[in-house]
TrEMBL record:
<protein>
    <submittedName>
        <fullName>Aminotransferase class V-fold PLP-dependent enzyme</fullName>
    </submittedName>
</protein>
<keyword id="KW-0032">Aminotransferase</keyword>
<dbReference type="Pfam" id="PF00266">
    <property type="entry name" value="Aminotran_5"/>
</dbReference>
<dbReference type="InterPro" id="IPR015424">
    <property type="entry name" value="PyrdxlP-dep_Trfase"/>
</dbReference>
<dbReference type="GO" id="GO:0008483">
    <property type="term" value="F:transaminase activity"/>
</dbReference>
<dbReference type="InterPro" id="IPR000192">
    <property type="entry name" value="Aminotrans_V_dom"/>
</dbReference>
<keyword id="KW-0808">Transferase</keyword>
<dbReference type="InterPro" id="IPR015421">
    <property type="entry name" value="PyrdxlP-dep_Trfase_major"/>
</dbReference>
<dbReference type="InterPro" id="IPR015422">
    <property type="entry name" value="PyrdxlP-dep_Trfase_small"/>
</dbReference>
<keyword id="KW-0663">Pyridoxal phosphate</keyword>
<feature type="domain" description="Aminotransferase class V">
    <location>
        <begin position="22"/>
        <end position="391"/>
    </location>
</feature>
């Protein structure tokens, strides 16, 4: 039995039915069967979390806090770390941005998803580096010139799938007295993300990218900034006591930033996904990355997007420029004629994707105009070799 819930066959324009090849897993991953089972098991016991007595409320409160512990274990949380349940990665990074001590300057590279570019208020942007080593050297140069309180980097790019040297960047950041936050939205589904092992101070990721449903995410890391900050949302759960003059004592701990009734099912879903991912073997995904990249390299009108060298480490994400066909139309046709789901666009990383599209187009044909959008194939636990081969053969015929 598959570990992934699958939509089954889809009907093509010519009337045939095929197994749907979901190659848009980086946007949202399918749900793990274990996650669906854990959520279904809890549904009859639905009750309020931290807000009631009685068997249901007790059970739901216990399950919620156990989910937090499971996620803390999965992330290698240290003493002094906390796990806050958020809505997704975007929410987690916005929460951290609001919790920064007053005058903290944040350093990012121009290679980030908008979720790790737009929330920060005082920022220093470094040019996207051309290799992991260059990223480390550029950070070192920048921090020796300018004081920054936080460095915020992606662990794996949602455009190229390239893995960033987070542990080395963390070592440099700490040497200059800065903390480091890691956008692990795209690494968490493919590899362990361990705060202690990476030396990261904060990590953010989304449930819907780690094979759990929408609506829950995580910000984990050093509790001190979070405990000292104004609550992310004002309301019940975040307030320990409210006087008749509406003077508030805010709680400390994760509840300070989890005002409103908590998302129990989301937390349990994420925790279950973390447990499953801790045991997952990702060798299959690495083999599929190679299969797809080797196949694309043989296509004369297609060129992959990359920032680093061709042999840099990657997760299951490959974006490419296609000449001779409008990318949105190509994506639609792949869906209707071949039962393949990919994404055409700039992937919420507009500066990076536009730049890499221009470079990829120039490698293909120096005189050509770069397409407005790239095409991205991304995959994970449920992907098969046949899905990859189907995409390659459809592109070959394009
Ligand atoms: N960072 C990266 C690297 C991502 O790929 C994404 C999702 N595309 C996000 C952040 C934002 O995730 P979410 O939409 O779940 O908040």
């Amino acid at each position: 039995m598959s570990t992934i819930l699958s939509p089954g066959d889809v009907k093509l324009r010519d009337g045939r039915s095929v197994d749907f090849a979901n190659l848009d897993v980086a946007a949202t991953a399918p749900c793990l069967r274990a996650v669906a089972d854990a959520v279904a098991e809890l549904l009859p016991f639905y009750g309020s979390v931290h807000r009631g007595a009685g068997a249901l409320s007790e059970r739901c409160t216990r399950e919620y806090e156990q989910a937090r512990e499971t996620v803390a274990d999965f992330l290698g949380a240290r003493d002094g770390d906390t796990v806050v349940f958020t809505r997704n990665t975007t929410d987690a990074l916005n929460l951290l941005a609001r919790a920064l001590p007053g005058d903290t300057t944040v350093l990012t590279f121009d290679a980030e998803h908008h979720a790790n570019l737009l929330p920060w208020r005082r920022t220093v942007h470094l040019d996207a580096p051309r290799s992991p080593q260059e990223a480390v050297a550029a950070l070192e140069r920048a921090l020796s010139r300018q004081r920054c309180g936080l460095v915020s980097v992606t662990a794996a790019s949602n455009v190229t799938g390239e893995v960033w040297p987070v542990a080395a960047l963390a070592e440099v950041a700490h040497r200059f007295g800065a903390r480091i936050a890691v956008d692990a939205a795209q690494l968490a589904p493919h590899a362990p993300v361990d705060l202690a092992a990476l030396g990261a101070d904060y990590v953010a990721f989304s449930g819907h990218k780690v094979y759990a449903p929408f609506g829950a995410g995580v910000l984990a890391g050093r509790a001190d900034w979070l405990d000292a900050a104004e609550p992310y949302l004002a309301g019940g759960g975040a307030s320990a006591n409210v006087g008749s003059d509406l003077g508030v004592n805010w709680t400390t701990g994760p509840a300070r930033h989890e005002a409103g009734t908590p998302n129990l099912l989301g937390a349990v879903a994420i925790a279950t996904a973390c447990r499953a991912l801790a045991d997952a073997d990702h060798a299959h995904e690495r083999a599929l990355v190679k299969r797809l990249r080797d196949g694309l390299a043989d296509l004369p009108h297609v060129e992959e997007l990359r920032l680093f060298d061709a042999d840099a480490e990657r997760v299951g994400i490959v974006s490419f420029a296609v000449l001779g066909e409008e990318p949105g139309e190509l994506a639609t046709r792949l869906g209707r004629d071949h039962g393949i789901g990919v994404r055409a666009g700039l992937f919420c990383a507009h500066p990076l994707t536009r730049r890499l599209l221009a470079e990829a187009t120039a490698r293909l044909d120096p005189g050509a105009t770069a397409p407005a959008h790239a095409v991205r194939a991304s995959f994970g636990l449920g992907t098969t070799e046949e899905h990859i081969d189907r995409l390659l053969s459809a592109l070959r015929r394009a």
